[in-house]
Amino acid sequence: MGPLEILLAERACERVIHTFVHRLDLGEPASVAELFTEDGSWEWPPPGDGRRSVGRQALREYFGSRPADRLSRRLMSNVLVTVTSPDTATGVSYFSTYRVDGHTGGIVPAGPPVQVGNYEDTFRRVGGEWLLERRVLVLSFGGPTPRAVG
């Protein structure tokens, strides 16, 4: 692969990373399943809660089960994608998650993030489109999701 092809692949994978959090926070959470390969997986291994979802249908159900009254915003940074072949890449990115449940509208008083960690990603190009093959959530800091006040 030449430098331009590598740059385009990196950018496509970065876009998947950012689209993932936009869909969770601002869009339809279940639609993040379409960012994964048909056999893609998302997992939160111990010391996380051990959740693992495999396949688009399971991912759609998992992300679609997000509480309707949850307000969240994820901040992504330190995104580093490494192209490993014309059709594969790996990535790591940091995230901070701010969220509350029980949101009925308006501005929520600011508080600390409920999660800070990183995603470890494996990407695969399928039919010319870069998709997540595997996403692992590594949590460094975390706590319970608070309820909105008021």
What does this protein structure show overall?
This protein has 150 residues and is α+β, with helices and mostly antiparallel strands. Helices cover 22% and strands 45% of the residues. The chain has helices spanning 3-26, 56-64, and strands at 36-44, 51-54, 71-85, 88-100, 115-126, 129-142. A six-stranded mixed sheet has the order 2-1-6-5-4-3, with helices on one face. The N and C termini lie far apart (56 Å).
Topology summary:
Blueprint: H1 3-26, E1 36-44, E2 51-54, H2 56-64, E3 71-85, E4 88-100, E5 115-126, E6 129-142
Parallel strand pairs: 1-6
Antiparallel strand pairs: 1-2, 3-4, 4-5, 5-6
Which H/E pattern describes the elements?
Answer: HEEHEEEE
Inertia-based shape: globular
Treating each run of at least 4 consecutive H or I residues as one helix, how many helices? 2
Strand element count: 6
Helix content: 10-25%
**Roughly how many Å apart are the termini?**
56 Å
User: Taking strands numbered 1, 2, ... along the chain, how are they ordered across the largest sheet?
Assistant: 2-1-6-5-4-3
Which class do the helix and strand fractions yield?
alpha+beta
Stretches with pLDDT under 50, minimum 5 residues: none
Key words describing this protein structure:
150 residues; six-stranded mixed beta sheet; 22% helix; alpha+beta
